[in-house]
Amino acid sequence: MHTNEIDELRKLLPLRIERLADIAYDIWWASDHQSRSIFRMISRYHWTLSEHNPISVLLNTPRSRFDELAHQPEFLHHYDALLANYDLACERSTKWFATEHQESLGKPIAYFSAEFGLHSSLPIYSGGLGILAGDHVKTADDLGLPLVAVGFLYPFGYFVQHITTDGDQIAEYHDLDRKGTAVQEVLGSDGKPVIISLHLDNEQQKLHLKLWKVKVGTVTLYLMDSDLEINVAADREITRRLYGGDKLYRLRQEYALGVGGVRALQQLGIEPAVYHANEGHSSFLFIERLRLEMAKGRSFHSSVAHIQATSVFTTHTPVPAGHDAFAPEIVADYFQETIRELGISKEQFLSLGLHQEEYGEAFNMTSLAFSMADHRNAVSKKHEEVTRKMWKGIETPSSNIIHVTNGVHIPTWLAPEFDELLRMAMPSDWRGSIDDPDFWKHVHQIPDVLLWHVRSQLSRHLGRYIGDLLRKRAPDDDKDMITRGALYNPSAFTIGFARRFATYKRALLPFRDKERLAEILNNPERPVQIIFSGKAHPADEGGKALIKEVWNYAHDPLFRGKIMFLENYSMHTAKLLVRGVDLWLNLPRAPLEASGTSGIKAAINGVPNLSVLDGWWIEGYNTKNGWAIDSHEGLSEEAQDALDAESFYQQLEQVIVPMYYHRNLENIPTEWMKVVKESIASVLPQFSSERMVKEYVKNLYLPAERA
Ligand SMILES: *Cc1c(COP(=O)(O)O)cnc(C)c1O
Question: What is the model's pTM?
């Protein structure tokens, strides 16, 4: 008999405070400042050491400390308030969806994604796509949407980035400590862990996938794990790494995600009303649905029509390499058994996903999703146009491509210091009005001095984090110290540039004219510093070369320590950066940024954007809430780069830096604070994930459910 993880953890705690275990196993805490502060109160040391992992705090803090806390009135007061709040949050019936859409969706939406970014202690995400999925799940919980999510538990996660003194990225994989993470075994009615099995290819050996679950308030995320002793060695690898391996590895992984995911839900007795494929990685779910529909005796055409009407697909990138495509023969091999069972020809099967690629015809996961899901969307207005051009001919009168512009989960990304300030300065609890633009106009009434105080605090937090990293690492030469931020100055104007290192993001653009950049940075009265951070995919040699180049600039004497690089960009570092810098820089080569979300996270924390007009910024920029670099689509790359770099230098020199350093008698930059306030007031409601998920409900989920 397996005991459940929460019970085991409870047993370690005094009865009076045993429900700390429930909270630790509910990722709900990740966006609840009250619970985060309770775990910090228990042990600041273990909270910091574990980079904010409650389970780790509960497992590692000495028992005597809990006995002490169980008798401390102040602690118990916090504990009781937290529990009351938590129990309320676990009640779906009082939330938005239940009150607005009572009659709809008795059955859930099944949301499939290859990655989920919920918190850095659960490293099953690589970047923007995963964090969007995590924010979607958290918001579904906030809104009381009946949703179940499906993905993988990657025991080796995405890699941890180390950078050598020479600027070479080293990818390290750490084995996930399942016991120290908020994942629980899914147990069947017999009390044993649930394991599903399927045939890959026509191999003799079956692939077994163990099911785990992660609780996010009222939403459950199911994670499949192939790293089991009963699996043959090659199969154990299937879910070990996120985006690891070669093409065949990806195909096998995506087979397990789509086909395995549908089987897992079936085994759990969950019958979704709507299936949502977040990006094409999970598109094979549609093939498994086809098998299930036809097994009920439905014809091929009627099954396809039913699946189309009840499926949602979101595409996320205009970059061709972001759309997985496989050799048709190999896909047909993997689905040999299914094709036979469906009684259709191989050609008919392959026609569902065939697409003309640069190198010839391939089976493309995005094509498959488009042919099986009638409810489809891009992730910004501009991206909708680009997608339409890119996938000519896939629209029919009944299935247009629409857009739902990305948003971010405000309770996750807004600094706790702002939470406190807003509770005091706004007319009512901001959590009740997240997507209401009128409510956020009140930000303009907050006294500058209070807002500026928070902004300064956040810069100091960032400085402390950089200092901690340096001390932990103790670099042995000055060059390395400087590169890693030893000369960070919390009162200097700080620009943040943090994202995946891919060529289209143009991390090197600021260095086009090095002398001019040095001049901007080294002005003694108005110093400017730039912090870079980001990973390159381990197989992306171009991306790694970019990191190395930035790394070398960081200790170039020309810049005198004003350029720095933070290793291992994660949700944890992202939070510190988007809150702690003064300006967020984004330089994509338009129109390749589908949406982008880090700029939104910065904007809501009073960090205005300087960004190329692409993705979300086309919709977000209003001339008063930040600065825009015109996009120069259609010109040669060289001409685009030259114009964009010129615009970057000019705006910094003439407008942005002077405005930041223009202070009143209290040393507050009053003009700058107007931009800060406008940034929060205009971006927060419009680019919140509340607005986003409500649009998914209205424009995609409900129409698909009604079909
Ligand atoms: C938000 C976020 C991203 C995505 O940022 P973009 O602006 O879309 O590049 C990537 N990684 C992390 C860790 C993030 O928090």
Answer: 0.97
Q: At residue 129, what is the residue type?
A: L
User: Rounded CA gap, 448 and 498, in Å?
Assistant: 28
Mean pLDDT to the nearest integer, 106-111: 93
As given in the structure block, the two tokens for residue 616 are 């979300």
Q: Do the beta carbons of residue 588 and residue 137 sit within 8 Å?
A: no
Of 448, 455, 449, 446, the residue nearest 681 (C-alpha): 446
* Residue nearest (by alpha carbon) to ligand 1 atom 9: 499
20 CB neighbour count, 10 Å cutoff: 26
- What is the three-class DSSP state of 337? helix
Mutational test site, ligand 1, from 597, 687, 689, max ligand atoms within 8 Å of CB:
597
**Would you state the torsion angle of the CA atoms of residues 367, 372, 373, 378, taken in this order, to the nearest 10 degrees?**
0
Nearest atom in ligand 1 to 599's CA: 7
Mutational test site, ligand 1, from 136, 499, 600, max ligand atoms within 8 Å of CB: 499
Q: Whose CA is nearest to atom 5 of ligand 1?
A: 598
- Would you say 354 and 367 are in contact if contact means Cβ atoms under 8 Å apart? yes
379 lines ligand 1 (CB under 6 A): no
Whole-number Å distance between alpha carbons of 217 and 137? 10
Question: Among 415, 386, 411, which Cα is nearest to 401's?
Answer: 386
Give the helix/strand (H/E) hosting 169. strand 169-172
Q: Do 377 and 404 touch, CB atoms closer than 8 A? A: yes
Report how far Cα 123 is from the mean position of its chain's Cα atoms: 11
Q: Could you read off the pLDDT of 308-354 as tens digits, one per residue?
A: 999 999 999 988 888 999 999 999 999 999 999 999 999 999 999 99
The mean pLDDT value for 83-101 works out to 92
Q: What digits encode the pLDDT tens for the residues 134-158?
A: 999 999 999 999 999 999 999 998 9
State the maximum Cα–Cα separation within the chain, in Å, rounded to a whole number.
80
Asked whether 528 and 657 are in contact (CB, 8 A), the reply is yes
Residue bearing tokens 């999510």: 149
- Structure token digits, residue 332: 């047909």
Q: Distance of alpha carbon 535 from its chain centroid, rounded? A: 14
Instruction: Tell me the C-alpha distance between 480 and 472, whole Å.
Output: 13
CA distance 300 to 293: 9
Domains (ranges, CATH) in the chain? 5-90 (no CATH), 93-407+693-706 (3.40.50.2000), 412-687 (3.40.50.2000)
Could you give the C-alpha distances from 70 to 9, 137, 687, in angstroms and in order? 16, 33, 42
